[in-house]
């Protein structure tokens, strides 16, 4: 079958393309922006990519068009599909029908940490010899591919609350029907499709409604929004993590790189790993709880976590030039920025830390998170904010409220010059964006030489 995917370079759609190819389909696709790491992965899989949405790519007609949620009415390829009556489906629906049917699905949902936690969970199951399938919105370094079918019943999926398609406004995760569900946390995000936090809570409850009574829901005790979701009605056993929960930790190092895991008061062992930050400790606890549900004893899960490598673009050290360390991070929400910088600060002590931040997500562009931004960067020594041309609010006003030195730049060249003038050997530079950021990482590394 020839499947053509519109919006193929999105992390979800690109991963879905890999699975369709593995099932034996002829897969092609197009996107407005074709950039790594997804484009590299797809080309390595032999999937043909087209830049842009010229309807010519749909002639001769494919057997099925999978339409990504970034596509909207008015897009030339979308209009062609509708006018010609071509068969089409959303990505989550295709996945539910052709991959997840009949599998034991382990889903990881939440505002933050979905990619990292689902990568951890897939790795823990792999380490235990369970060869899971998975679909992850990033490239886990333990696997070097973002999706695979796997040859056992187990399938780990990053369960996103974003909508499924222009013709299906339900959250993607409603399609997945998990047996084991991690609800990591819940804050307001995706301001382009959700009016407020209660609207997102309602979608999370739609997910809870689909989890069987023989399944398991795992969530932290510290998230009031998730507590409200559960109180709307829950038909599934629940395990909790963190203070007062069944799963707890004793930190053995301040930066979260070593901690003891407790389940119902009993020590299960010690995780010692390369990750930092309280958020990753919380991700690890949820992972161990989910893995135990499918039969992985905690001591085995702990051994796996100690060998876990992070996900590409999640505090990934991409260069070290003249003693200056450059990191690539996906953080695009004040909470994620704050926890990431806090983890690095605890690891590097008093070393100079420069944060470069691009407000690129739809919620950021709409200004939904701007009030939280000044507080999110307190662990940096200085911040460079990048103001793209289409930003609809006053970034300079926000930068002025920061308690650490902050400047706004409207060019990559300006950012590079600023870092060159400030960074000394021993400085750590974190570049935060959920896009390619114009290749800033490579350009900065080159300039620092």
Instruction: Report the end-to-end length measured between terminal Cα atoms.
Output: 49 Å
How many alpha or pi helices? 15
Strand order of the largest sheet: 8-7-9-6-12-13-14
The main sheet comes to: 7 strands, mixed
Dominant shape: globular
Helix-residue proportion? 25-40%
* Structure summary, number of beta strands: 23
**Binned strand content:** 15-25%
CATH top level of the largest domain? Alpha Beta
Under CATH, the topology of the largest domain can be stated as: UDP-N-acetylmuramoyl-L-alanine:D-glutamate ligase
Structural class based on helices, strands and sheet pairing: alpha/beta
Low-confidence stretches: none
Over all CA atoms, what is the radius of gyration?
A: 22 Å
Q: Residue-averaged pLDDT, rounded?
A: 93
Q: What is the CATH superfamily of the largest domain? A: Mur-like, catalytic domain
Query: What is the total domain count?
Result: 3
- CATH architectural group of the largest domain: 3-Layer(aba) Sandwich
Pathway: Cell wall biogenesis; peptidoglycan recycling
Organism: Pseudomonas moorei
Cofactor: Mg(2+)
Binding site for ATP: 110-116
Structure description:
Its EC number is 6.3.2.45. GO terms for molecular function: ATP binding; UDP-N-acetylmuramate-L-alanyl-gamma-D-glutamyl-meso-2,6-diaminoheptanedioate ligase activity. It catalyses: UDP-N-acetyl-alpha-D-muramate + L-alanyl-gamma-D-glutamyl-meso-2,6-diaminopimelate + ATP = UDP-N-acetyl-alpha-D-muramoyl-L-alanyl-gamma-D-glutamyl-meso-2,6-diaminopimelate + ADP + phosphate + H(+). Keywords: ATP-binding, Cell cycle, Cell division, Cell shape, Cell wall biogenesis/degradation, Ligase, Magnesium, Nucleotide-binding, Peptidoglycan synthesis. The structure is a single chain. With 449 residues, this protein is an alpha/beta fold. The protein folds into three domains: 2-91, Rossmann fold; 102-305, Mur-like, catalytic domain (UDP-N-acetylmuramoyl-L-alanine:D-glutamate ligase, 3-Layer(aba) Sandwich), CATH 3.40.1190.10; 316-448, Protein-Tyrosine Phosphatase, Chain A (Alpha-Beta Complex). The chain has helices spanning 11-22, 38-44, 76-84, 91-100, 114-127, 197-209, 224-231, 278-293, 298-305, 334-348, 362-365, 373-376, 395-400, 412-422, 440-448; strands at 2-6, 26-31, 48-51, 64-67, 88-90, 104-109, 133-135, 147-148, 154-158, 163-165, 168-171, 180-183, 216-220, 238-241, 247-251, 258-263, 266-272, 316-321, 324-329, 353-357, 382-386, 406-409, 428-432. The strands form five sheets. Strands 8-7-9-6-12-13-14 form a seven-stranded mixed beta sheet, with helices on both faces. It has a six-stranded mixed beta sheet with strand order 18-19-23-20-21-22, sandwiched between helices. The chain has a five-stranded parallel beta sheet with strand order 3-2-1-4-5, with helices on both faces. Helix 6 (197-209) links the parallel strand 12 (180-183) and strand 13.
């Amino acid at each position: 079958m020839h499947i053509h995917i519109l919006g193929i370079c999105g992390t979800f759609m690109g991963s879905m393309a890999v699975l369709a190819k593995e099932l034996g389909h002829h897969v092609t696709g197009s996107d407005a922006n074709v950039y790594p790491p997804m484009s590299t992965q797809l080309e390595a899989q032999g999937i043909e990519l087209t830049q842009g949405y010229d309807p010519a790519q749909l002639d001769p007609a494919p057997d099925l068009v999978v339409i990504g949620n970034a596509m909207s009415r008015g897009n030339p390829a979308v209009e062609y599909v509708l006018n010609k009556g071509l068969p089409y489906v959303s990505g989550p629906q295709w996945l539910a029908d052709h991959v997840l049917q009949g599998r034991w699905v382990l889903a990881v949902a939440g505002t933050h940490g979905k990619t990292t936690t689902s990568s951890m969970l897939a790795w823990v199951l792999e380490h235990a010899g369970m060869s899971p399938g998975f679909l992850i919105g990033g490239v886990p370094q333990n696997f070097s591919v973002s999706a695979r079918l796997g040859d056992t019943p187990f399938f780990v999926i990053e369960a996103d609350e974003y909508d499924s398609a222009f013709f299906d406004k339900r959250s993607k995760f409603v399609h997945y029907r998990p047996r084991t569900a991690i609800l990591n946390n819940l804050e307001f995000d995706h301001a382009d499709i959700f009016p407020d936090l209660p609207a997102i809570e309602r979608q999370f409850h739609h997910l809870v409604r689909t989890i069987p009574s023989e399944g398991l829901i795992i969530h932290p005790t510290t998230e009031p929004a998730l507590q409200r979701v559960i109180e709307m009605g829950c038909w599934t056993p629940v395990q909790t993590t963190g203070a007062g929960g069944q799963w707890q930790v004793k930190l053995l190092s301040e930066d979260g790189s070593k901690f003891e895991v407790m389940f119902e008061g009993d020590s299960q062992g010690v995780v010692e790993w390369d990750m930092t930050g309280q958020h990753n400790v919380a991700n690890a606890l949820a992972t161990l709880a989910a893995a135990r549900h499918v039969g992985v004893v905690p001591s085995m899960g702990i051994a796996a976590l100690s060998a876990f490598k992070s996900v590409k673009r999640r505090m990934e050290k991409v260069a070290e030039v003249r003693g200056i360390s450059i990191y690539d991070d996906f953080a695009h929400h004040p909470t994620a920025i704050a926890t990431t910088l806090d983890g690095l600060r605890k690891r590097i002590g008093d070393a100079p830390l420069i944060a470069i931040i691009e407000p690129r997500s739809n919620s950021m562009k709409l200004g939904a998170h701007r009030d939280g931004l000044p507080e999110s960067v307190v662990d940096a020594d200085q911040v460079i904010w990048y103001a793209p041309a289409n930003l609809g609010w006053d970034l300079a006003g926000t930068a002025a409220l920061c308690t650490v030195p902050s400047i706004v730049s409207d060019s990559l060249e300006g950012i590079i010059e600023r870092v060159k003038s400030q960074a000394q050997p021993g400085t750590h530079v974190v570049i935060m964006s959920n896009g390619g950021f114009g290749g800033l990482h490579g350009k900065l590394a080159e300039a620092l030489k």
